[in-house]
Design goal:
It is a single chain. This protein is an alpha/beta fold. The protein is about 45% helix and about 20% strand. It has 2 domains: about 35-130 and about 255-325, D-Maltodextrin-Binding Protein, domain 2 (3-Layer(aba) Sandwich), CATH 3.40.190.150; about 135-230, D-Maltodextrin-Binding Protein, domain 2 (3-Layer(aba) Sandwich). Strands 2-1-3-10-4-11 form a 6-stranded mixed sheet, with helices on both faces. Strands 7-6-8-5-9 form a 5-stranded mixed sheet. The termini are far apart.
């Protein structure tokens, strides 16, 4: 090979090397300067609910810590599916993230014919925390305990009714788990949202409903509804006199609502880790914990991988229940 050919080959290899390294260098630089513009935080439910309140709370602190605006965008509908798909199809650059809840783990089983799967299309960032569901009855109800409810259900299968904010909601699936562990047959009455369900529960048109503390506690304080059981192994500090599921004789009954942050699947790991660190830092702040405590939220900080493991465990648990109970939102 002559000297010209050698020089030509060397130049070609150098050019190829530069072409290959340039995008990687640009990506690395983008990760180093992240974030250098506002972050969009997608909320899959309307304003005013627990997911929205928690998203805005953590988003505010996240923005302060990262020195960038965090813009909250509500995209409600289809048990979160609309927002989950929107986020999954967004650029995987860390500028679109989402705060989700139980649907992140249950929607795949609830919508089996979809080509989209939250577990496969979204990357876990961090778990925020969880709250146990509380079994609520009208203030004038004859039911004083979970045993009263199960005895009535066994005496007249299908006559005891329970409300939910809709098929596949946490109240629905939690009640189905209650039916499963207690061996009872109770009738599901789905509503289009939590507000109309609570109105009918207060009026005594349905027997009970599982509510998260944010929904339940104001009803307890007003005297409109009465708690008879917390669907978790331990009692809830906010209402310590109310028996836990273990107290009621069902230690395997555990139904909660939980929240966590996700991003599009191919978001670079350094960005995921940076967001995880900052979200955990926000959750550790005393003023944040002071606001979460009255909502009955137990903070559950950890790594992105921890949250990923949790999501898959939840999908397995609730997916099996959804299948055995023949529940489908299609």
């Amino acid at each position: 090979m002559n000297s010209i050919s050698i020089r030509t080959l060397a130049a070609t290899l150098a050019a190829a090397s530069l072409l290959g390294l340039a995008p990687q260098g640009a990506a690395a630089q983008a990760q180093d300067t992240y974030p250098d513009k506002p972050i969009h935080l997608v909320v899959p439910f309307p304003p005013g609910g627990a997911v929205d309140i928690l998203g805005r709370l953590i988003g505010q602190h996240l923005g302060e810590q990262l020195k960038q605006s965090v813009i909250v965008e509500n995209r409600a509908g289809a048990n979160g599916t609309i927002a989950y798909e929107y986020t999954a199809k967004s650029a995987p650059d860390g500028y679109t993230i989402l705060i989700g809840s139980n649907g992140l783990a249950t929607n795949t089983a609830l919508y089996p014919s979809r080509t989209f799967s939250e577990l496969e299309s979204l990357a876990p960032i961090a778990k925020l925390g969880s709250s146990p569901l509380i079994m609520m009855v009208p203030s004038g109800s004859a039911y004083q305990s979970l045993k009263d409810v199960t005895d009535a259900a066994k005496a007249a299968p299908g006559k005891v009714t329970y409300a939910s904010a809709g098929s596949g909601s946490s109240a629905h699936l939690g009640s189905e788990m209650l039916k499963s562990v207690t061996g009872t047959d109770m009738l599901h009455i789905p509503y289009k949202g939590g507000a109309p369900a609570i109105i009918d529960l207060t009026a005594g048109r349905v027997s009970f409903m599982l509510l998260d503390p944010l929904q339940a506690l104001p009803q307890v304080e007003s005297g409109r509804l009465r708690p008879i059981m917390v669907a978790s192994p331990q009692r809830l500090a906010l209402i310590p006199s109310v028996p836990s599921a273990t107290d009621a004789g069902y230690p395997k009954l555990e139904a909660s609502v939980w929240w966590g942050f996700v991003a599009p699947k191919d978001t670079p790991r350094p960005i995921i880790d940076k967001l995880n660190k900052q979200i955990n830092a926000a959750l550790a702040k005393p003023d944040v914990q002071k606001k979460l405590a009255p909502m009955g939220v137990t903070v559950a900080s950890g790594s992105a991988d921890d949250f990923g493991t949790f999501l898959h465990d939840q999908a397995a648990t609730w997916g099996a229940l959804i299948k055995s109970a023949h529940i489908s939102n299609e």
